[in-house]
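Sample pair:
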Amino acid sequence: MVQLSRSGHVDTFCREHLPAADQWPDLLFELPSLTYPERLNAGSALVDEVAWRHGPDRPCLHSPGSPTWTYGDLVVASSQVAHVLTEELGVVPGNRVLLRGPNNPWLAAAILGVLKAGAVMVPTMPLLRARELATIEEIAAVDVALCDHRFLAELDRVAGGAPVVAYGGDGADDLTHRVGAHAGTFDAAGTAADDVALLAFTSGTTGRPKATMHFHRDLLAICDTFGAHVLRPSPDDVFLGSPPLAFTFGLGGLLVFPLHAGASTVLVEKASPVELAQLVEEYAVTTCFTAPTAYKAMMAAGLADQLSSLHTAVSAGEHLPAATWESFKAGTGVRIIDGIGSTEMLHIFVSAAGDAIRPGSTGVAVPGYAATVLDAAGDEVPAGTAGRLAVKGPTGCRYLADPRQLDYVQDGWNITGDTFRRDADGYFFYEARSDDMIVSSGYNIAAPEVEEAVLLHPDVEECGVVGVPDEARGMLVKAFVVLRAGAARDETTSQAIQGFVKQQIAPYKYPRSVEFVDALPRTATGKLQRFRLRSPT
């Protein structure tokens, strides 16, 4: 039975929109480290307490072309952001604050300032378009938005959107100027450990995104499970990676884990695999988080010599092929830590490190979590049999007022939507996605969302979108299009559709391949048969 403590939120929106108690997954707190005090503010725990423990002069945030921030600098900046939010913008504990911008120190300060203020952060990808942002604002009932000054245009297009404050610019109203009027200390809001701290959005197979609700204690729980038992960071580590902080993989790997350890992290706004390798060499990076395609590209470009400082490489977001693992190990001596996580679970729950790694396998259940493979009826299948991956742990799926909670949580298990098999030793082996999600270069892309965008083009009559195998990206977004009468079935039309889609949704979601067809395969009731589009025949 779910028993919540007394909330520290004044705005009770999140508490009111948690799933019903009987729809929650089972939560496990069997490790002693997973016992948290009733009152907990993750912002204070990850910055102020760490600065006190390790010293304020310790390097914290590196950013190419900018001075390094110390832990003391981050304490001051995040506290000042919290003052602006509460004293100038009227934010109270429980209000939702949308965050929009690329990875850099000011985004980190904004994230931590929101947490210190007791508000709920709603991080978003800077590539998202106005229609996507409008949906997020509607679902989360956003109260205020903090946006990098270079990415205001799409937010400005959201009709009736929340008030927006820019940061990183030169204007007098810019957040980075307004903070100067405030003290560099802040008494963090007295939030409960089980108050919502984060609304992380994930695409659904229906195309409408879902808001996953994570507590203050969850941000520490991932450090006390995957962080403590698999990653094992030290204060001397230097982190780097490619995932945006708007993704929970990036939020954990590039901010939460290094801060919790008293380590430093390199926040880079955008970097190709070649640029990542250069940054590894420049900053003597020890720990890298990125997708398998990036590790493969580094080896293909002959960049092993630039990676000599690395001792830990983490891969998630898509399946890690054994050949990529072997190539990276041969070139660098580093054994990539594979893992699978989900936005619903916050971070990685199946993984392995060091001598426990078995190339080709994703790993075993991370300490603190339990994992198994179930059949369609919810029964555990024998070793070697493919089925649905099911997980339990200290974190779990809690969608904000969304009926799809009943699909993800079944009989207390989180059903991730992945097909796996498990061997007799408890190692899990990836087979495929169980739903219509396309995983391309580490990005989750919902096929129905892309279809909706393609269908807005005036020349398109019908559209079906699927993922097809691709050596470089793992999967490629492909659109099968039925054109309206009179439209030309040529490359010009194909490119026009692709360009149009890039203006409707985040560009990484656009169909990189367009095939014109006379009709789409459908059932007698009219349901699109995507499995037939995936078939090469």
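Residues 204 and 446 are 6 Å apart (CA to CA).
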